[in-house]
Here is the input.
Amino acid sequence: MERLYGVDKVTMEEDWVDIKVDLGDSLIFYEVKPFHLVEDCIRDGLAQVVLYGFYSEDKRPKKLVIVGPSMPLTEDQELILYLKSNLIFDFDYEGFQVDQTF
Here is the structure.
């Protein structure tokens, strides 16, 4: 994340948020989950990132992202698209492999 956005833009473990990225005009909140199934990561993390966005005193637009160890399968992509089209905030899921670097 720091390589992608810059060290000064990335904060870890602040106000219960796993990773927060400050893009200047907006924020990205990342919640990292360990579950193998994408659905389990989303189920466990969605309420957390929604509350992070709600309780944040910063009024800039926020993107809420769940990160898990698995890449989404077709049925996972359908769930992600459903959530993206039905939630009123910017949401996404990102699969992350341990050997992946940013």
